[in-house]
Amino acid sequence: MTVKTELSKIVKPENFFDDPEVLNNYSRDFSLVPPGVPNYVVKPKTAEEVQKVIQLTNKNLLPVVPVSSSVHFHGAAIPKQGGIIVDLTRMNRILEIDEFNRRVRLEVGVTWEQATKALAKKGFRMMMPLAPHPMRSVATDHLEREVITNTVYDYGEPLQSMEVVWPTGEIFRTGSASVTGYPDSPSKGANPSGPGLDFYRLLQGAQGTMGIVTWANLKIEYLPAIDRVLLAPVDDLGYTIDFLHRILKVRIGQECLLLNNTDMAALVAQKWPDDFENLRASLPPWSIILILSGMARRPEEKLKYEQNMLDDIIRNGFSEIKLADNLPGFPGIGKKLLDLLRQPWPKDKPYWKNRYLGGCQSIFFITRPSLAIQFIELMEAVAAQYGYPVDDIGGYIQPIEHNRACQMQFDIFYDPTSEFDVELVRNLYHDAIIILAEEGALFTRPYGELASLVYERATSYATALRRVKKVFDPNNIMNPGTLCF
After folding, report:
1. CA 254 from chain center: how many Å?
2. Report field, pTM of the whole predicted structure over 0.85
């Protein structure tokens, strides 16, 4: 029996594909990573079907690339060596919403749009990245350590226990989901650690190289009862970062972030492109977005307490920070931003990063907030060398760990139909990541050519990763050519 016949038998013929047009759809994404065409695509429905596919590919030494959604931005789901795409989008059930433990268990194909709607009906929400694509996988974004906009819960690990099919074909459950009697066990899978090792850390940021997660337990929180959106123009970025140090260490606010005028305009513009151009020209260079929230219990008192503390901090040392319900001259922008921070991007609109020119190459890394100005100047200098308009660079600073660190993101917009634009941005990106890395940027999610740059500079870490990979994937079938494998 041929591999094609066996795969078709495992997932049923209607879920097996080898048509060139279908295969080509999986060969590229929104990134600048070179395309790669798979040999076959399968769409399993259960962990057992995934297991059988993996056992077959191991037997025949065929590469496997797991795909959890229909939208990808970083090239991690592009086949580097052909092989089989395991498309998990049919595994899209929300298995349980545990209100007592504030936990949701969902399959890896569940999207942000699907999850937020289901949780809102129960009065809950998930911590989410900035305006995620509605068709992205919730579990995968957490596995890939997408940084959330909420600064209060970032110490708690949002990803809890999960089920994974290892590259050798075994089905394994991590954390307290591994105990006898699960899911009716007392902990309900809410503890991520164990058994023995903290296995979930092997899967985070692994880009599908360590196994295929089929479902995961994730933390959820109550929807706030009341919110107050506060915004302020930023005249002095260093002064503003000092202010954030002061307020975030005492846990004032829920969501807190900084956006430059280009990214802000791309997010909130309504009529395109006129609104975008007008907003970008008139918005301040950078703006603070801070959301105070009253939760389920005594919401008015909590909101008043935080507001009073915030007012006291501003009076005693940060009088130049002018927080208000709206930015001067932009009525209603606060409400728009609240919706964007609590919901995935609207499905009926082009994704916000692709609205301006059609394509966007993002550079994101972790650094100390005090170095933000230095990195902005470096990025602008590289762009100027290539003749790329500095005003076209989107900027986003996300405080983490109560502003002891932050994620910085630069969004480089370009026209993907223009060979000139694509080549210019490809070269600009290449030089920028090298310069930023040399100045201390910590690339914790190295995609595409970044992987080579990062692992060449961390040889001992790369050696350890290869040893771990050899244990869990002795035949190196799982997404080969990604990371340092």
Report:
1. 18
2. yes
